Amino acid sequence: MINCSWLGLLRRPSILIPVAFIVWTASLWGFLSGRVGLTSDAVSYYEHTKFFIDQIGRGQFPLWDPYWSGGVPNDFFLRRIGPYNPFLLIVLVLNKLGVKFLSAYMIFQALYFFFGMTGFYLLSRKLLKDGSAAFLAFLLLTFSALGTRMFDSYMLLVTIPAIWFFYFLVSFFIEPRRSRAAGMTVALMLLVTTYVPLYFLVILLFFILAYVLVFWRDIPCRISSLFGFIGRNKAFSVVCAAAILAAMIPGLSFYGDAGKGGIAIPGRHYNTEARHVLVVEPQLLSPWSIMEEFFFSYYFTDLTRIAFAIVYVPLFAFLVLGAGIFSRLTGLFVLLFLWGVSLLLFSMPIGFPMYGFLYKYLGFVKYFRNLHFLLWFAGLPIFALLVGEAWKNLAEQRLEKRSWRLLIVVVIVHFLAFLFLWLQGDALVSTFLALALSGCAWGVFLSRSQRIHQWLLPALLLAIVVQPVEVFSYLSRNYPQGETGSFYTNFDYKFAHITQHAGEGRIPSLENSAYMSLSGTPPTLYYSTDIYKTLRAKVGASDLERYERFKFYLYDQRPLSDSLTDAFSGVPVKADSDLLRVQKFGVNEVVIKARLGSPKFVVYNDVNYPGWSLMVNGKAQSLETTNGAYKGFWLPAGESVASLRFGSFGKHLFNWIVMMSFYGMFSYTIFLYCRRRYAAV
Q: What's the number of domains the chain is made of?
């Protein structure tokens, strides 16, 4: 008879996984509620996501960003946030329902993390084939430092779809199904549209290499299974391939455009002779690699000072590895170990030749530089799986006749851990409590009584979460209270926000966001058009800022200088004056209505860039690059209407089609899974 009591429910993963998520949410509530501000790259990602969601909510796909560096093509920022991700619909819907944007954004982040960790649990179940080992791996990754990176970086945008890709990959080769192939397709579509998808390519290539080395006998069977599935599902396979190709096109288009030299990314492209702006210098002398990440983390062994980018995993993981150090090796353990070590060696450019060799002979390695990101994208999940596999091996050893040896090893490991923590002198109270609860969990684990052993999962939950709860509380205290980036929380991207008030005012560029303000340093160019970078270098930031106080200047003759030499000879005009008025404003389109006594040359202080077109009174007219970087055009005497538009109809339509393909494949995957479950019932 099934036990339906609440005590029975507490032993089920389907209940304990949401409980773990509730505990995780409560422990990081300061960040999730907005009481503690976002920091570092997370501010920029928040701002760009808000910009994108606001424009999508208005029915336009934002191909141009007039708020950054005098105006820039938005492709680079779109690649960073993964604009086609169906989960972003959560933010849009909540915001339209009246939820404050920052709150909607943090709800999305938390749910997306939970979605990813659920996928990791399912992947662990497939790989480890042991319920307690899978739950252990899930808890270790969930309460590691990985989840905290949503508040300072973008790690989860790569890690979450990568986890689901490997879940669907493993499931597919266990039993090929359309639903699993569709899931792999959706995950790959998300991965190829995230920031520098080449990180995932490295992770995948090293996985394939490790698999071939360990399970080489299975390769013919896997290949046969794949081609057999394609042969039976030709039309479906073509649709999946087409969807992945469609998802790749925007990124490939951006790569091609960047190679033409129209944009500048000084923050990435420096000290290198390569002409392509996306190429970075070899990370051999002054990079931040995985070893620096570990040394930096060691500096913060006092967990009361914990900060972001600190490699933290709950204590229980190391107790399991300590107890399982003499366990038998399995094929899966060797695979995970080789996979993790190969990524580790690749991410250590000093002292190991692998990175330098691949940088020289494997072209795509030249396009990413933050090697330590691989630790967060793959290193921590692989480590959690390794610990889970070690636990599974110990579970098998527990059932053997000489299991008393395991008890002795567990006691010794806990004693050594206690001694180390005591001598350390600055260990948290929760660390000692975790050690005590760990002893209880191991007691349940080693118990011969099935009735006691049923409480293993709750015991694991208590033993693992007690330390992270206190550690995350210190993390919340170690960062400024208040909403970082709050200026943009209510920023609705109207033309008035470009021009400010009656005196026009400085353009609120995202470069001058809360993150830059907190740093106390003058804003520097991270991403801009090449002509704007050149102009700024010529005239200086202060003169450029003074000139850009007005968005429009009128001239009787076209300014002859390519810099700002003749720029101030024009008449500055407010955007709501009798001479000129902005009739319609969108990030991709500006409509200007003018009433002039004589023909005038108009300079609109938004960078001129290939892809902009101009219509004056319904007739096409050329745009000229004026005053070094900006749009210039003639308007006739009398009333006239000038319409400036960025991007062709086909490009806008294509982006909407790609977005619909994401939603279509995502919905189809859910449909296939629901149909199978319904049929099974």
A: 2
Q: Clarify whether residues 665 and 620 are in a common domain.
A: no
Cα dist from 176 to 163, 164, 209, 211, whole Å? 18, 16, 22, 19
Q: Which tens digit of pLDDT belongs to each residue from 432-451?
A: 999 999 999 999 998 877 88
Beta strands in 509-598 (DSSP E): 528-529, 552-555, 571-573, 580-586, 589-596
Closest CA to 389 of 327, 342, 464: 327
Residues 48 and 142 in one domain: yes
Judgement on whether residues 464 and 568 belong to the same structural domain of the protein: no
For residues 132 and 367, the model is more confident at: 132
Which pLDDT does position 483 carry in this prediction?
Answer: 57
- Residue 575 DSSP code: T
pLDDT at residue number 340: 94
Domain match, 542 and 663 both: no
Contact 13, 457 (CB under 8 A): yes
- What is the average per-residue pLDDT within 361-365? 80
For residue 664, what pLDDT is reported?
94
Q: What is the 3-state secondary structure (H, E, C) of 21-76?
A: HHHHHHHCHHHHCCCECCCCHHHHHHHHHHHHHHHHHCCCCCCEECCCCCCEECHH
Q: What is the DSSP letter of 479?
A: S
Compute and round to an integer the Cα radius of gyration of the chain: 28
Residue 610, helix vs strand vs coil: coil
Backbone angle region of 89, left / alpha / beta, with phi > 0 → left and psi within -120 to 50 → alpha = alpha
Reported as a single tens digit per residue, the pLDDT across 316-358 is 999 999 998 877 889 999 999 999 999 998 888 877 778 888 8
Q: What token pair was written down for 280?
A: 């970075």
Per the domain annotation, does 25 fall within a domain? Answer: no
Q: Where are the alpha helices (DSSP H) in 260-379?
A: 290-299, 316-323, 331-346, 354-361, 373-374
φ and ψ at residue 324, rounded to 5 degrees: -100, 15
Domain that holds residue 559: 494-647
Helix/strand/coil percentages in the chain, nearest 5? 60, 10, 30
Q: Are residues 418 and 474 in the same domain?
A: yes
- Looking at the domain assignment, is residue 253 inside a domain? yes
Contact criterion met (CB below 8 Å) for 203 and 159: no
pLDDT digits (tens, 9 = 90+) for 373-382: 899 999 999 9
Say what percent of the chain tops pLDDT 70: 88
Looking at the structure, tell me whether residues 628 and 673 fall in a common domain. no
Decide: helix, strand or coil at residue 9.
helix
pLDDT at 518: 31
